[in-house]
Design goal:
By secondary structure, the chain is an alpha/beta fold. Helices cover 37% and strands 13% of the residues. It has helices at 6-13, 51-63, 73-77, 79-82, 98-107, 173-183, 199-209, 228-236, 251-256, 267-276, 296-306, 324-331, 357-371, 374-379, 388-397, 402-410, 414-437, and strands at residues 41-45, 67-71, 88-92, 113-116, 143-144, 147-148, 169-170, 187-190, 215-220, 239-247, 280-287, 311-316. It starts with 5 loop residues before the first helix and ends in a 19-residue tail after the last helix.
Length: 456
């Protein structure tokens, strides 16, 4: 939990000025929400795997007379399940509904269900209330979102949930840059599903960010490398890392999932383009597709090591309720249960086609064990010696030091401890950018020094 979710701070930003707002995130390990002063209204964003905890909190508050409003994606996909635990549900986009909900509370006319549309101009949303965040608890409080939606509609992705009509929209570049500047942090994380869905918008955003001298990371699809000049613009604007959903090495799986992406045979070449511009890659891989056989685990890790991905995230294929994948699995009788707490991409909740659920879960665990072994970490080290020390520090502070993060988060030390490294990374990246500016764009032979971000 290194950066704050925008869900609650965005709702806070839409709250009328005559209401007092407080923020509480149980991921920060500070215990249950405080009760003094006792709230008149509680809004809870319900996440699939934590639905039971959300309902327990909602029931506790309602027994004591608080008005409880539930929203979030799980409410959209399972409204009948959520309804008994709330005085009102917000189905769909919540920011635009929230002022109406509070005015209805004041007037005593609260409705059971409110519907929000994602078709309203995204640029009209108020900025999030970052002033409510406990800044010591986060690596950075500058979680940003510039775009909404994705040009893909993968059948396993939550964006494919029934009723989630989310057209791709962008905010004004000036809005995004001003939010970055106003929060006063050297590092930001873009939480967009795919910041690169519109390449020319991303290029304009990079041009505006470049003068700030900051660093940032974002999720993109690997086709961002179609145009190396765009990757160069990202690097010169401060991009130090990207999260890329490669998903699978089998083209048949990508076709079945309706994922529009370059051929897996071209992944390594495209990763090299990002590396050549000093951008680290955190690759995301989904295990358990219908064309996956027991060798999928070793083949996936072999690609990660050959391409020298700095980091990777593995997910067991998980049929989220309301998605095409869920409907298919349900119709074929392959779902094992509906215990949502296990629908966390770390547990097998369905019967794979070519292996047992136990084999799938064991293979998933093996992938992480191999990836964060000393041998794999060393094998994936950057070719530029200048980037090796920070890469090793990042690798050992990530999955091999969970106890350390637990202590930092619990004692609200994440910000104070991490800030010097973030600032060192920013200064190092400024020097790297200066070297990159000297390179001739087409076919330059000079290797750019890879920069490993302070954040993963």
């Amino acid at each position: 939990m290194l950066t704050p979710s925008l869900a609650l701070t965005s709702i806070a930003g839409a709250t009328p000025a005559d209401w007092e707002v407080s923020y509480w995130d149980e991921n920060l390990l500070q215990g249950p929400p405080p009760t003094d002063p006792f709230p008149q209204v509680v809004g809870i964003s319900v996440h699939l795997t934590f639905a039971a905890r959300a309902y327990a909190l909602a029931d506790w508050y309602r027994r004591r007379g608080t008005v409880v409003v539930l929203g979030g994606l799980h409410v959209l996909s399972c409204p009948d399940e959520a309804a008994p635990h709330a005085d009102a549900l917000v189905v769909g986009e919540g920011v635009q509904c929230w002022p109406t909900v509070l005015r209805d509370v004041e007037a005593g006319t609260l409705r059971r269900v409110y519907h929000g549309s994602f078709r309203q101009a995204y640029r009209d949303d108020p900025p999030p209330r970052r002033d409510l965040l406990p800044r010591r608890s986060f690596l950075t409080t500058t979680s940003l979102i510039a775009t909404r939606g994705c040009h893909n509609r993968c059948g396993f992705c939550y964006l494919a949930t029934d009723g989630l009509a989310m057209p791709y929209q962008v905010r004004d570049v000036e809005q995004v840059v001003e939010e970055f500047r106003a929060d006063g942090q050297p590092y930001a994380v873009f939480t967009d599903n795919n910041l690169g869905s519109r390449p020319e918008y991303l290029r304009s955003l990079c041009q505006a960010l470049r003068p700030l001298g900051v660093i940032w990371s974002a999720a993109v699809t690997i086709d961002v490398t179609d145009d190396p000049s765009l990757v160069r613009a990202m690097a010169l604007a401060g991009c130090t890392g990207v999260f890329v959903g490669f998903e699978s090495l089998a083209g048949e799986n990508l076709v079945d999932a309706n994922k529009k992406t370059p051929s897996p045979d071209d992944y390594a070449r495209r990763v090299a383009i990002l590396h050549d511009h000093g951008i680290q890659v955190n690759g995301s891989f989904v295990l358990g597709f219908d064309h996956d056989r027991p060798d999928v685990f070793e083949r996936t890790v072999a690609l990660i090591e050959a391409a020298r991905l700095e980091c990777a995230t593995f997910h067991i294929l998980t049929p989220y309720p309301g998605t095409p994948l869920f409907r298919t699995m349900e119709a074929e009788g392959r779902l094992l249960h509906r215990d949502w707490s296990q629908y966390d991409t770390a547990h097998a909740v369905f019967r794979p086609r070519y292996m047992t659920p136990e084999d799938l879960q064991a293979g998933y665990a093996w992938c992480y064990h191999r990836l964060f072994s000393h041998a794999s970490i060393w094998h994936r080290r950057p070719t530029d010696w200048r980037a090796v020390p920070p890469y090793l520090a990042m690798s050992y502070l990530h999955k091999r030091s969970n106890w350390f993060w637990h202590q930092l988060i619990r004692h609200r030390l994440t910000g104070p401890v991490w800030h010097p490294l973030v600032e060192w990374t920013r200064r190092r990246h400024l020097r790297f950018r200066h070297r990159l500016e000297q390179r001739t764009l087409p076919g330059a032979q000079t290797r750019a020094g890879s920069v490993v971000s302070a954040g993963v």
